[in-house]
Amino acid sequence: MAYNWKTRTAPPGSQWSSAGVIGGILYGFCQISSAYWICSYNPATGLWTQNLLTTMTAGNIGSAIIGGKMYWIDGIALATCAAVYDPATNTATKLALMVSGSNTYWETATTDGTYMFSVAGYQAGYYTNSLRRFDPGSNSWTNLNSDLSSLAFVYAEYIAGSIYLTGGGWNNFTTASNTTAVFSLATNSYSGGAVAPLAKIAGASSAFDGNFHIMGGWVGSTAAINLHYVYTVSTGSWAASDSLPLAFGSPLGQGGYATGQGANPPVYLVGAAVGGVATASLMEYSENPSAIPVLFLPANGSNPASGDVTCEWDAAANATSYELQVATDAGFTDIVDDVLTPGTSQLISGLILGTPYYWRVKSSNSMGSSNWSLIWHFTIVLIPNYKIVQLTEIIIPQLAQAVIPRTLLLRVSSVKSIFQVRKEKI
Amino acid sequence: MNKTQLAEALTDAGVNLTSEQVNTIYGKIDQAGIQQKHRDRIRIDLFTKVDLVKGMVINNVPGSVWLAQPGVSYLPDEAKIVLIYVDGELSAVQMHSPYAAGFRHFTDADADPKNSSSHIQRLIEDRAQGLADAEILRLAKEASYGL
């Protein structure tokens, strides 16, 4: 897949502490003025909506999309809890306190699709090494193995049974980590990973194409960055990817949190960029829309000589699949074939001699479908490989009668066709 | 933004000042003027679902596509839909009021531009305050460098 970055309509708020895609729409939790809101971005319209004014506060990053709802770690200090937003009802609810009596914030949330995991953070004056699991079914937290380094604002993503961790900072975020750890949910234990290219905190992460992506972040306490790195799970190695159009991420200070959405592309990064609130941005990592296919064969207005016709078209840019429609009318109300194919040609069989056929193709990829191509038409005028299964009657001439020329009336296997019969001299 | 909020925002931004220093900076910032400046950047437009049925195009998206979006189908024909522009750029669309859980559509009273407490006026004020807060924080940080 070939993805690239685009900037989209800037979000209405700052301090984006969570974001996730539900039903193709990006939802997130952010600050506007001194209040905290659920906002959403609809890619189909390119616009934001302020969905709900909440009574909640943000102190953490990341989210967990579970069962069509967005879960996040809400609040700071003694009020830190799980929270959930249900887009079906436009309601936000505080759930169980993370750890009763603790003073926690700056955790990172991720999910395996069933549970929300809280990674590291800051607790009672110390950067923590905690790993906790929230079960939406029982509305309860469970402590897991906490042998990772004491950090806050780490990058964390679930991939195939493990949570991949890197970055994170301490010492008021003047110091950041470049270690990578892999936490196995099956064994409740950690293993080490390759050292990350940069020590950084509080950017965004995503798990797609089976790998661990980290984007943007804050290096030391000096500047946000616009770099994108990929940890390839199969090789256990880091590599630089492409660059974001904007620097992205701020742990505290500069006016806002930043967060990413962890599922498959399109991946969204939303929140503070360099300078914080005033430049909060939305970036999208996605394929370009696929181009409209250009038809190739049979040529428009042509007369194929067979009832089995192969329709061909040129490969369209960014396309991963195509839809071919063949109909007997230009309005495509009488569709005789509708085929999805990854290729650029398709055999259509059993077409009737003399009937005009209209065809068109559109392309698709993860961003949706292109518009339909131009409509071409063809009419089959000859089927040379016919098979006569029964000679019913000879009208003229009578059997054994010698005439010049000789004319025959035939019945054949298909009644679809009108035949030209080669005349033979005797 | 009151003094306490400014002090918290400065602390979050890594600027640690005494309460006296915060007071000094706070007194130098024309909050009302900044708020008005950002309020003037915001414009709203109102329309209804009927306009979409008639084919109204918004943000280069035809009405037929809008009608298929979440949150539109349940709207009664007379419900107001709100577009929010910042500096002339279309930024947001509001199918429902965000000041109540659920999907309460905008009534005529909610969308009354002459009523300072109507929901659309609250939307404008919240947006303006958010923009103003960013500028106030920036000015306060700059002012702190001279202390």
Q: What are the SSEs and their pairings?
A:
The complex is a heterodimer of chains A (426) and B (147).
Chain A: E1 3-8, E2 14-22, E3 25-32, E4 35-42, E5 47-54, E6 61-62, E7 64-66, E8 69-74, E9 81-86, E10 91-97, E11 104-105, E12 108-111, E13 116-123, E14 126-135, E15 140-143, E16 155-159, E17 162-166, E18 169-170, E19 175-176, E20 180-184, E21 189-193, E22 204-208, E23 211-219, E24 223-232, E25 237-248, E26 258-260, E27 267-273, E28 276-287, E29 295-297, E30 309-313, E31 321-327, E32 335-341, E33 345-348, E34 356-365, E35 368-369, E36 376-379, E37 390-393, E38 409-411
Parallel strand pairs in A: 6-12
Antiparallel strand pairs in A: 1-28, 2-3, 3-4, 4-5, 7-8, 8-9, 9-10, 11-13, 12-13, 13-14, 14-15, 16-17, 17-20, 18-19, 20-21, 22-23, 23-24, 24-25, 26-27, 27-28, 29-30, 30-33, 31-32, 31-34, 34-35, 34-36, 37-38
Chain B: H1 3-12, H2 19-28, H3 31-39, E1 42-48, H4 49-53, H5 63-67, E2 80-86, E3 89-94, H6 119-144
Antiparallel strand pairs in B: 1-2, 2-3
- Note the total helix count of chain B: 6
Low-confidence stretches of chain B: none
Please tell me how large the radius of gyration of chain B is. 20 Å
Structural class designation of chain A: mainly beta
The most extensive interface between chains reads:
A-B, 39 and 41 residues
Round the mean pLDDT of chain B to the nearest integer and report it: 88
Radius of gyration of chain A: 31 Å
Give a structural overview.
The complex is a heterodimer of chains A (426) and B (147). Chain A is built from no helices and 38 strands. Chain A has 426 residues and is mostly beta strands. With 147 residues, chain B is α+β, with helices and mostly antiparallel strands. Chain B has a 3-stranded antiparallel beta sheet. Chains A and B meet through strand 3, strand 4, strand 5 and strand 28 of A and helix 1, strand 3 and helix 6 of B.
In summary, what is this structure?
The complex is a heterodimer of chains A (426) and B (147). By secondary structure, chain A is mainly beta.
